[in-house]
Design goal:
Chain A: It is found in: Mitochondrion matrix. Chain A: This is 3-methyl-2-oxobutanoate dehydrogenase (2-methylpropanoyl-transferring). Chain A: Its EC number is 1.2.4.4. The complex is a heterodimer of chains A (352) and B (393). Chain A is of the alpha/beta class and 352 residues long. Chain A has two domains: 202 residues, Rossmann fold (3-Layer(aba) Sandwich); 126 residues, Rossmann fold, CATH 3.40.50.920. Chain A is built from 13 helices and 14 strands. A seven-stranded mixed sheet of chain A has the order 3-2-4-5-7-6-12, with helices on both faces. In chain A, helix 9 links the parallel strand 10 and strand 11. In chain A, helix 9 crosses helix 13. The longest helix of chain A has 15 residues. The radius of gyration of chain A is 19 Å and the shape is globular. Chain A starts with 29 loop residues before the first strand and ends with a helix. In chain A, 59% of the residues are buried. A six-stranded mixed sheet of chain B has the order 2-9-10-6-5-4, sandwiched between helices. Chain B has a two-stranded antiparallel sheet with strand order 1-3. In chain B, strands 7-8 form a two-stranded antiparallel ribbon. Chain B is globular. The chains are: A alpha/beta (352), B alpha/beta (393). The interface between A and B is large, with 37 and 43 residues.
């Protein structure tokens, strides 16, 4: 079903959805990579709602990652258009459009460039409904941005800023792990009546290939999925990192450690119940993400699980994350939370 | 009439200020500093200020230096292109070939006390500020001997002793920074200015207007240089800006539009701007220039503009060819001399590349250095976070 690409030569092969009990569907479809799946989702979104618009830098010709290919040709330049180089302006403009009842699907070219728009997202988008007493809202806003390491991205094409946004009540943060998940989650995000920040793992744009059903389908937000069942330790992650974690799980299995792997999918609001149930079963938790460890979202998961499962924990919660440095240039292999780091942490947690 | 080459440099008997007329006596290459006045091909257009004169004071030595420096920069960029394709340079690489006149003309008008800050297309600006080729190539390949010790890469070249404040990846972020540098210069009574460079894409960033307002309010010696190469990555200026007259976008800030492919015009404009900024506060210089390569090495550069356009500019407006014609028409050097110079430069660049290839990558301990002053006791972990722990001093 899924194509495991370049496992030995590149960083990872690819993890498909459909392992665990609660996977979306085992329907077959066309074999698509991540950017094509997202492209399909956008086509469906624009088709199904005439008041939805896609805009951002360079989206007209298809975008730098080809996620918006064919949209301008099909839906016209009044619905799919380029903006000048001004992230703050783009998001602010999107909030306004959404406040008038439209679906504004904004693209920020790289998540590293989202910071000029941070004020608009945090102070305007997240608080609009709240401060107007529900008279107005910008629920139709969806902000898409490619995030994450890509092997050679350096300081400004590799960042994972999800933790900043998880700290803002009023918006949702969604991160898919694969093409099939991405299509369903993006359609849910677009149709969700709250502003959503949707981070797409850029390394998987071409690397990940999976069978994606061609029809319109949505995957529910705020529902985590157990993609691999196990008994000894729970691993929680999202996005591209899951593939690395799965490889670590396979290696751990050879050493007799049974790992349960959970894809959080939605980081804000996150599915605490699923993770709690899993940790109550296994007694151990390991969280892994590319973003730097201090203040990363793993800290929130750790604190919450500690509150809920303290007496069931056999070992301290382990976090295997990016180091506390700016995303480096030549040092990327040292910075990243690699399979071996995760495997080491699994073993030391289990042997605590 | 003796057209023999004079081997001595003293030509004092025949030292007129030569305009575009031919001199029958061939001057000795490169050492003559007697003034020549050249008219710029394109007039300046101004906004809220007087245009500088089209007659530029220069000398044979200077024009020859222009040629040499631009040829060196051009060769460096082309070498970087091959290194990138050979995967010795990884990550991002934004090349400046076509725009060399800007780097070179600006340097001719200013000193190393004046600060320059620019975007990610910074290789040639670094060389213009006195950076060495081997430092540039080492940094590009991420080696220890690079100008930023291998930690910055293509987009982050810096040179403190030449007041070159770099090399910035985020579009437009360097503009308020540059105005801050100018503020410090004014505060310290340095009698120096800051050239803050940005592109036509960055011209639509809000922070530019914030910085302009502050610079104008406080009369800062800031010169904002818009390098208008007509394409913000793949977007042409007419598609992204309501008013592509970037020199007028300062509104209450005076501006000048300059032919950025003419090193002498650039020199004149920068000289004028420096005098203006020291007396009257900020000014915008829009440099009309062009880049031959795409936005970066991942951009072929031909999907949003025709190959005819690129080759047209190369034929008619190339900055190096322009200077070559000037040198030939003023008998400052012969074709052969210039070709020999180019060969030397080629060798110089090749040697620098070879030397850079030999240098080592930074130690892995460098991953943690220079985040804070003396790294502030930051704890750093090994793979499993339990065994290997190191506190940085």
């Amino acid at each position: 079903m899924a194509a495991l690409l370049g496992r030995s030569c590149r960083r990872f092969g690819f993890l498909s959805s459909g392992h665990g009990a609660r996977s979306v569907s085992t329907e077959t479809g066309k074999s698509l990579n991540l950017y094509s799946a997202i492209n399909q989702a956008l086509h469906i979104a624009l088709d199904s709602d005439p008041r939805s618009y896609v805009f951002g830098e360079d989206v007209g010709f298809g975008g730098v990652f080809r996620c918006t290919t064919g949209l301008a040709e099909r839906f016209g330049k009044n619905r799919v258009f380029n903006t000048p180089l001004c992230e703050q302006g783009i998001v602010g403009f999107g909030i306004g459009l959404a406040a008038m009842g439209n679906r504004a699907i904004v693209e920020i070219q790289f998540a590293d460039y989202i910071y000029p728009a941070f004020d608009q997202i945090v102070n305007e988008a997240a608080k609009f409904r709240y401060r107007s007493g529900n008279q107005f809202n910008c629920g139709g806003l969806t902000i898409r941005a490619p995030y994450g390491a890509v092997g050679h991205g350096g300081h400004y094409h590799s960042q994972s800023p999800e933790a900043f946004f998880c700290h803002v009540p009023g918006i949702k943060v969604v991160i898919p792990r694969s093409p099939r998940e991405a299509k369903g989650l993006l359609l849910s995000s677009i149709r969700d009546p709250n502003p959503v920040v949707f981070f797409e793992p850029k390394w998987l744009y071409r690397q990940a290939v999976e069978e994606v059903p061609e029809h319109d389908y949505m995957i529910p937000l705020s529902e985590a999925e157990v993609i691999r069942e196990g008994n000894d330790i729970t691993l929680v992650g999202w996005g591209a990192q899951l593939t690395i974690m799965e490889q670590a799980c396979l290696d751990a299995e050879k050493e007799g450690i049974s790992c349960e792997l959970i894809d959080l999918k939605t980081l804000l609001p996150w599915d605490k119940e699923t993770v709690e149930a899993s940790v109550k079963k296994t007694g151990r938790l390991l969280i892994s993400h590319e973003a730097p460890i201090t203040g990363g979202f793993g800290a929130e998961i750790s604190a919450t699980i500690l509150e809920r499962c303290f007496l069931k924990l056999e070992a301290p919660v382990s976090r295997v994350c990016g180091l506390d440095t700016p995303f480096p240039l030549v040092f990327e292999p040292f910075y990243m939370p690699t399979k071996n780091k995760i495997l080491d942490a699994i073993k030391s947690t289990v042997n605590y | 009439m003796a057209l023999s080459r004079l081997s001595s440099r003293s030509n004092t008997f025949l030292k007129p200020a030569i305009t575009a007329l031919h001199s029958p006596i061939r001057r000795h290459v490169s050492t003559d500093t007697s003034p020549i006045t050249i008219e710029t091909a394109v007039p300046f257009t101004s906004h809220l200020c007087e245009s500088p004169s089209r007659s530029v004071e220069t000398s044979s030595e200077e024009i020859l230096a222009f040629f040499r420096d631009m040829a060196r920069m051009r060769r460096m960029e082309i070498a970087a292109d091959s290194l990138y394709k050979a995967k010795l340079i990884r990550g991002f690489c934004h090349l400046y070939d076509g725009q060399e006149a800007l780097a070179v003309g600006m340097e001719a008008a200013i000193t190393k006390k004046d600060a320059i800050i620019t975007s990610y297309r910074d290789h040639c600006t670094f060389i213009g500020r006195g950076g060495k080729l081997v430092d540039a190539f080492s940094e590009l390949m991420g080696r220890k001997t690079g100008c930023s010790h291998g930690k910055g890469g293509s987009m982050h070249f810096y040179k403190k002793d030449a007041s070159f404040y770099g090399g910035h990846g985020i579009v437009g972020a360097q503009i308020p920074l540059g105005c801050g540098l100018a503020f410090a210069q004014k505060y310290n009574k340095d009698e120096a200015v800051t050239f803050t460079m940005y592109g036509d894409g960055a011209a639509n960033q809000g922070q530019l207007f914030e910085a302009l307002n502050i610079a104008a309010l406080w009369d800062l010696p800031a010169i904002l240089v818009c390098e208008n190469n007509h394409y913000g990555m793949g977007t042409a200026t007419w598609r992204s800006a309501k008013s592509p007259a970037y020199f007028k976008r300062g509104d209450y800030v005076p501006g000048l539009k300059v032919d950025g492919m003419d090193a002498l015009a650039v020199k004149q404009a920068c000289k004028f701007a420096k005098e203006h900024a020291l007396k009257n506060g900020p000014i915008i210089l829009e440099m009309d220039t062009y880049r031959y390569h795409g936005h970066s090495m991942s951009d072929p550069g031909s999907t949003y503009r025709t190959r005819d356009e690129i080759s047209g500019v190369r034929q008619v407006r190339d900055p190096i060819e322009r200077v070559r014609k000037l040198l030939l028409s003023h008998d400052i050097a012969t074709e052969k001399e210039l070709k020999d110079m180019e060969k030397e430069i080629r060798k110089e660049v090749d040697d620098a590349v070879a030397q850079a290839k030999e240098s080592p990558v930074p130690d892995s301990s460098e991953l943690f250095t220079n985040m804070y002053v003396k790294d502030c006791g930051v704890e750093s972990f090994g793979a499993d976070r339990k065994d290997l722990k190191v506190t940085l001093p």
